[in-house]
Amino acid sequence: MDIRKLQRAIVDGLEDVKAQNIVVLNTEHLSPLFERVIIASGTSNRQTKALASSVRETVKGRGLQVMRTEGEDNGEWIIVDCGAAVVHVMQPAIRDYYHLEEIWGGKPVKIKLGSSEVKLVKASEEPAAAPVKTARKGTASKPITAKAAPKPAAKSTAANSGGKKAVPSAAAKKAVAKKAAAGTQAPRKG
Questions:
Q1: Mean pLDDT of 49-62
Q2: Chain center to CA of 122
Q3: What is the number of domains present in the chain?
Q4: Which domain holds residue 100?
Q5: CATH assignment at residue 70
Q6: What is the largest CA-CA distance in the chain?
Q7: Residue 9 burial (CB < 10 Å; 0-12/13-18/19+)?
């Protein structure tokens, strides 16, 4: 079996469904089980499942064999075993957490994606000062409840007030301004 033909079929299958950050690693010297590890990201469970399905169909359509697929039930990390190449389709958060590029390190393989050539970076060449993303709990904010609209004040007419016009006091003007401001939310920080 020609590994380049298999690699091209896998990458084409990934590109058909718009995979992101496709990386092909040469692992011939690291494992006797497979020669390539191909890692790609999908933005949602639905896309990762579609990427895995596209890889299977493309590889089989070119007369090559797919051994098995794991992880399609949840869609966060799907592994497609194509014999000489193993494809990891992951969501970005899972990919950042496990750093498979560092584990399999190896030699990146230059491939053409679409119409432009991509330069792949070895794990050892990545910037060491990259911040580590950690999940943090969301801050609980008070639920916004709908307040009942204030009852409109009874309008005074010239007949009711004996011909005098009612002039709102300064305190009444402030109360109206506060109610109007309470209806809008303050911008969130950061």
A1: 96
A2: 23
A3: 1
A4: 3-122
A5: 3.30.460.10
A6: 102
A7: buried
Q: What angle do helix axes 3-16 and 45-61 make, rounded to 10 degrees?
A: 140
pLDDT at position 97 is 94
Which tokens in the block code for residue 46? Answer: 């639905």
What pLDDT, on the 0 to 100 scale, is given for residue 102?
A: 86
104 falls within a domain: yes
The H-or-E segment that residue 26 falls in is strand 20-26
Write down the pLDDT at residue 101: 87
In a domain, 161, yes or no: no
- 46: Cα separation from own chain's centroid: 12
In the block, which residue shows the tokens 């692992």? 27
Q: Is residue 85, in this structure, part of any structural domain at all?
A: yes
Joined together, the tokens standing for residue 98 give 């496990």
Query: 18 near 67, Cβ under 8 Å?
Result: no
Tokens 């869609």 found at:
75
Q: What is the DSSP letter of 63?
A: T
Contact 79, 70 (CB under 8 A): yes
Q: Is the pLDDT of residue 32 over 70?
A: yes
Q: Is the Cβ–Cβ distance between 38 and 7 less than 8 Å?
A: yes
Q: Where are the beta strands (DSSP E) in 27-141?
A: 36-41, 68-70, 77-81, 85-90, 107-108, 111-113, 116-118
d(CA 35, CA 53): 22
Whether 100 maps to a domain, the answer reads yes
First to last CA, the chain: 53
Give the residue from 98, 108, 102 showing the smallest Cα distance to 133: 98
